[in-house]
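User: I'm writing a tutorial on reading structure tokens. Could you give me a worked example: one chain, its sequence, then its tokens, then a sentence or two explaining what the tokens reveal?
Assistant: Sure. Here is the example chain.
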Amino acid sequence: MTYRVVFRRAAAAEYADAARWYEERAAGVGHRFIKRIEQALALISQAPFRPATILAKVRRVKTQEFPFFVYYLVEDSRIVVLAIFHARRNPAIWRRRK
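And here are its predicted structure tokens:
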């Protein structure tokens, strides 16, 4: 079963902001970032319970090449992306959003 992926508003904004930031630094890097996030989301949608739970029902996956985690919940037949978050940022920031 493949799960549908939906983003919380803040996660979608983080994703767009990070892609834009990378693209402004060097042409094509933002597109590589998007590709790596999409790969992580594809893996999550195919096997959402593989990563360990890190907080309550929240799970996370590290992206390849870029220092970002995708934090998410599994709800029924969908994946809810809570954050696309840089690994060096304090995770308490996105936790306060709930």
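What the tokens reveal: The chain has a mean pLDDT of 92. The radius of gyration is 13 Å.
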